[in-house]
User: What shape does this take?
Amino acid sequence: MAKKTEEVIDEPVDTEQAVPEAPAPEPAGLQLSDIAAVVKIIDVVTKRGAFNGDELGDVGSVRNRLQAFVVASQPEPEEKK
Assistant: This one.
């Protein structure tokens, strides 16, 4: 039968190692460019026939509201004197 041996190591162990902090997550948010991109995506997928005819009313309604929001949110152009 094999002889059991236990070896005790009496050395200090550094348990407080420097752990780099995780980067702070970026806040989730939408930009006007994101909403404008959604309007373009809706236009493209509609042209490709991705929606049934009975769905087009709802899709068009959402698209028009998004487009109106983008237009209304654009800064007014400054008039040159």
Q: What stands out?
A: The first helix runs from residue 32 to 47. The chain has two helices and no strands. Residues 32-73 form one domain. The helical segments are 32-47, 56-73.
